[in-house]
TrEMBL record:
This is HNH endonuclease. Keywords: Endonuclease, Hydrolase, Nuclease. GO terms for molecular function: endonuclease activity.
């Protein structure tokens, strides 16, 4: 989602949540993973699917992506 390389911190995200019958996973930074789940319900994620550009249409996510873009790959901070 953020375009930064993945380093040692890694989590697997279900673009379509398991609760909505999603099976596939994609690697994401933990901070990005928390941001996704802080801004979308499982139903919204099921409709969006595996399209990071649609995630970035959300103003809060777009602001986050702009902020995180120049941080190191293993950067971590608390998520609101």
């Amino acid at each position: 989602m953020c375009g930064r390389p993945i380093a040692t911190r890694l989590q697997w995200h279900h673009p379509v949540p398991k609760a909505k019958k999603g099976r596939g996973t994609v690697p994401v930074h933990p901070i990005c993973h928390r941001t996704i789940h802080a801004n979308f319900t499982n139903a919204q994620l099921a409709r969006i699917g595996d399209d990071p550009e649609r995630l970035k249409e959300n103003p809060a996510v777009a602001k986050f992506v702009g902020w995180i873009a120049d941080k190191p790959p293993d950067f971590h901070a608390p998520t609101r």
